[in-house]
Amino acid sequence: MQRYFVPAENWNDNEIVITGDDAHHIIRVMRSKTGETIICSHPNGQAATSTITSITNNVVHAVVKEWLEGSAESPVEVTIAQGLPKNDKMETVLQKGTELGAASFIPVRSERTVVVWDDKKMDKKMRRFNKIVKEASEQSQRNKMPSIQPISDLKKLAEVNAGYHLKLFAYEEEAKKETQQLFSSYIKNVRPGERVLIVIGPEGGFSEKEADLLKQNAFYPVRLGPRILRTETAALYALASISYQFEESAYY
Amino acid sequence: MQRYFVPAENWNDNEIVITGDDAHHIIRVMRSKTGETIICSHPNGQAATSTITSITNNVVHAVVKEWLEGSAESPVEVTIAQGLPKNDKMETVLQKGTELGAASFIPVRSERTVVVWDDKKMDKKMRRFNKIVKEASEQSQRNKMPSIQPISDLKKLAEVNAGYHLKLFAYEEEAKKETQQLFSSYIKNVRPGERVLIVIGPEGGFSEKEADLLKQNAFYPVRLGPRILRTETAALYALASISYQFEESAYY
Fold first, then answer.
1. What is the CATH T-level fold of the domain A3-67, as seen in this structure?
2. Is the pLDDT of residue B252 over 80?
C-alpha cells in the first residue's frame, strides 16, 4: 500500500488533506479512486491506513481508518555526518541511508572537501535532497522521515555538544592497523533510545589534524571492516550494522 | 599504495609482468618510475609489495619485495545471487558488494525480472562487470577478486546443490510479518570457512511460487531489517552485517 508523509497542518483530527506532488501521485500515477486505502504518516511518527473520501482538482481528502501500531523505526537514533562527496554520491547516501534507518543527516565540509556548494546551489540541492529522503521514506515504509540538517564545518561539528551518547568517525588509518577497537564494541554499548553520531570523511578521508581534533572532542576512530570503503559505502555499512545489531539480533 | 591484480600466467616465481590496462595505469595515470613500489595480488589470494624493475612500451616488470601477511578477505565466503535489476543497479551491487567483501556474484533471472539481456549484450555486460569488480577490488585493497558467475535462472539456482552451508533469500513478506526468524540467528551459526548463498529478487521481489520453490530446496526466507529495501540495497545490508558479525565482533 502506498505511503504518504503529510505535514502536520494538513491533519485535522482524523481528516487529512493531501496536496502538491503527493496528490498528483495519488491521482495521476496511482490513479486511485474514492474509497481506496492509502497509508498516511504524521510527522510525529504515527501512521494510519486512510480511506480516500474525495478527489478534486489536485487535492485529495482522506479519513483515518486505523492507526498502525508496528514501527519500522530503529530503536537507536543515528545521525550520519557525511563529508561532501563528489558527483551524485550524497544522493546515494541520503536514499540508501533512509532505507537503512538513519534518523538524520548532516552534510559536512572538511579539509579534503573538493566540491564547492555555493548558497544558490545549496538551496536547490537541499530541495532535491529533501525530495529524495521523502521518497525513500515512503518506499521503505518508514514511520518518520529523516531530517537533513544545515551544512556544517567539521570544526563546528566537532566542538558543538549536541547531546549524542556516542560519537564515532570512520578513519582509514584504523583499517590499516594490526589491532584496533572493534566497531561492535562501541555499538553494543548503545542502549535503545540513545543517539549516535557517525562522521564520515569525503573521498580523501580526514587529515591527521582533523582526526586529532575529533579525538580531543570525544569522537572515537573506527574502521568499518578491514577493507577500504568508498565514502558513500561507509555510511551504509554503519547503518546496516546498527540495524543488524538492534533489529536483527536477539540480545544487545 | 596502488594494488594490481595480476593473472597467474604473468608470475614467474618472484618476477611479475604487468600488461594491458594495469600497465597503462602504472605508466600514464600514476606516472610511476623504476624503483617505485606497488602491490601485486596473485589470484591465489597472496599479495606482495613489489618493486618496479623496468618500464618499456606498455609493459611493466616488477619483482617481489615482501609477501604481505594481513588479509582483507572475509572469513565467510558469501555469494550474492542478484535478481537482474533495472538500469545500472547491477553495477552498484558489484562495486559496493566487492568493497563489502563478497566472494562471488550470480546474476539471476526470475519471474518478475523486467530487463532483457540478450547474448550479445551479455558478453559486453560481463566484460564491463568484470572491470568494475577488478577496480573495486584494487580500490578496497582486497586480496582476492570476487568472481562473476554466468547468469542463472532462479529454478536452476534453487535446484543445483552447489555445496553451500547456508542458503537464504530476502523475502519482503518476512519484513511485514509480526514475528520472524532474526537474520542474525542464521548468520551466527555460520563458521569461518563456510559458504553462504544469499538470493535477492529483482525490483518486484519473488512470487509466492518462487518462495515455495526456494523453501523446498532448503533456502530460508529472511528479512533484512524492518524496512522495505530496494533490491540493490539488500545485498549491501547482508554483506555489511556479515562483515560486522565476523570482522568487527569479538565472538561468533
1. Ribosomal Protein L25; Chain P (2.40.240)
2. no
